[in-house]
């Protein structure tokens, strides 16, 4: 028996929502009755159009999964998809402006967009380091700030901001020396914005995914690889999937369920962090 819609009437936004964790969270928010805006990095290739079309189709299925009586169609979805490179500050203000134009307000913002290129530390070039820094941390800062400015300005004032950090905020990754500092930074940003924005009734929290199979680690965890076999053995609940991040995000978005949770770090890792076998 599925849960009833828990986010009816909310306006939610997700960066990097075309694939992976962001997509799963966006679809879950839609299934829970929210209006959803998705930011994505335009690639202008055929894969992008396929992903955009399939997101619409999956959105219809997600909404019907919790409301069988829904007669929603792909043409009239409460779904806004906005291209933009979040490493550019103006993308953040443009995204929030389009959300407000379309839906009138912003209640929950998920800073999810991020990159991770597995690389030997000694060989990482400055432009790769900068890309990780500008996308994962600067992009989080710019978009969280734009979202918070909107949440402060609206009535009723307030909202929920969710930073998708990582287990890598707590542990190292030998081939992720450019990535892990940015994920630690995202968590620290949530701690500080929780302190700064509580007076505006805005809650800021971090979700820390463990090893979730997404496009980020497709190559790193390819079938038959030693790494995949090791991670499957090491993680008590096995490898995660993007949908495993949706429930914790809905919980943090739903004020009746998490209204006194702010500055928290929620590890969603299948038990990996505590298992040192
Ligand atoms: C996470 C963790 C996972 C990896 C992803 C890309 O922080 O290190 O193992 O697959 O990043």
What does this structure look like?
The chain is of the alpha/beta class. The chain has one domain (11-268): 3-Layer(aba) Sandwich (Rossmann fold). 42% of the residues lie in helices and 13% in strands. The chain has eight helices and seven strands; from the N terminus they run βαβαβαβαβαβαααβ. The protein has helices spanning 20-31, 46-66, 89-103, 126-153, 180-197, 226-234, 246-253, 255-258, and strands at 11-14, 35-40, 79-83, 108-111, 159-164, 202-209, 265-268. A seven-stranded parallel sheet has the order 3-2-1-4-5-6-7, with helices on both faces. Strand 1, helix 1 and strand 2 form a beta-alpha-beta unit. Helix 1 crosses helix 7 (246-253) and helix 4 packs parallel to helix 5. The chain is globular, with a radius of gyration of 18 Å. The termini are far apart. The mean pLDDT is 96. The structure holds beta-L-rhamnopyranose (RM4). Keywords: NADP, Oxidoreductase, Rhamnose metabolism. One of its GO terms (molecular function) is quinone binding. It holds the Pfam family adh_short_C2.
């Amino acid at each position: 028996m599925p849960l009833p819609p828990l986010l009816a009437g909310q306006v939610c936004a997700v960066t990097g929502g075309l694939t992976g964790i962001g997509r799963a969270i966006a679809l879950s928010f839609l299934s829970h009755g929210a209006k959803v805006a998705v930011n994505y990095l335009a690639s202008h290739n055929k894969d992008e159009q396929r992903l955009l079309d399939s997101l619409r189709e999956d959105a219809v299925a997600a909404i019907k999964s919790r409301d069988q009586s829904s007669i929603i169609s792909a043409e009239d979805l409460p779904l806004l998809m906005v291209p933009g490179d979040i490493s550019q500050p103006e993308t953040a203000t443009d995204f929030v402006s389009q959300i407000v134009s379309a839906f009138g307000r912003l209640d929950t913002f998920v800073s999810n967009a991020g990159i991770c290129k597995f690389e030997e530390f000694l060989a990482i070039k400055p432009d790769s380091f900068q890309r990780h820094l500008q996308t994962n941390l600067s992009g989080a800062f710019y978009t969280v700030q734009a979202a918070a400015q909107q949440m402060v300005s609206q009535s009723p004032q307030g909202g929920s901001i969710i930073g998708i950090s990582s287990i890598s905020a707590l542990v190292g990754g030998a081939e992720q020396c450019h990535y892990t500092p940015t994920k630690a930074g995202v968590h620290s940003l949530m701690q500080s914005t929780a302190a700064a924005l509580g007076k505006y009734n805005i809650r800021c929290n971090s979700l820390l995914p463990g090893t979730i199979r997404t496009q980020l680690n497709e190559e790193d965890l390819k079938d038959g690889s030693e790494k995949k076999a090791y991670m499957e053995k090491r993680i008590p609940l096995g490898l995660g999937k993007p949908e495993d991040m949706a429930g914790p995000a809905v919980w943090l978005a739903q004020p009746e369920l998490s209204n006194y949770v702010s500055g928290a770090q929620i590890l969603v890792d299948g038990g990996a962090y505590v298992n040192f076998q």
